[in-house]
Amino acid sequence: MSTPRFAEKTVIVTGAGSGIGRATAARLAAEGATVIATDIVETGLLELVAETTAESASAGTILTVVGDVSDADTITELITAAGGRLHGVANVAGIMDGMLPAGEVDDATWDRVMRVNVTGPVRLIRAALPLLIESGSGSIVNVASEAALRGSAAGVAYTASKHAIVGVTKNVAHMYAPQGVRANAVAPGGVATNIEGHPKSELAAARIFPLLGALAIPVAQPSALAAAITWLLSEDSLNVNGAILPSDGGWSVA
Known about the structure:
CATH architecture: 3-Layer(aba) Sandwich
Distance between the termini: 37 Å
Number of domains: 1
CATH class: Alpha Beta
Strand content: 5-15%
Shape: globular
CATH topology: Rossmann fold
CATH superfamily: NAD(P)-binding Rossmann-like Domain
Radius of gyration: 17 Å
Structural class: alpha/beta
């Protein structure tokens, strides 16, 4: 291709300071996008900008917004940074729940996980929709999880939040397709990121870990998920809307 897929396109990426979000932001920039990258940790964003600039002088622009994606003020800053032009949103930011089952989860964990994993993405989608509609071919990609497909991969809060984001994805896909906006989700399995996955529950460890060990599913690199996310954001996937794409090394068919 002589023209980069994301030339003259602007895309918001949350959780861009590390892991899947960082790999996605870097790939989008390498393909010509103006990336509005956000994370709660500024250090990761600064490293992303430095690495992207060092790798290619012709890469797209990365603008950074430091903040919590579950806060309304951060959402406002992201939309303002877009400057009236927006073609894509990648909701990557997310947190785990210590694998706490329903009988052990505390209110603070439940509220925080739902706020970051569901409320934040919905707020960003709501704020971004007018600009995505105006672009004529807007694309939203939400990061779900293998925990969105089954009940044996995480605790109750994380599992509920990822099932919810699948519902959000399908509803947005249905409602806004006539206005040119697509919504899809990627469901990763194990990925080499810095998200805390240590169980805080003996029950969860006893129920979940033996299954994971028996399946022996490989752990993916963030770049593998970035490839799927950028494809769904691009016009290469124009005929895909409302899909939940497992990128889990085959876990979903086990």
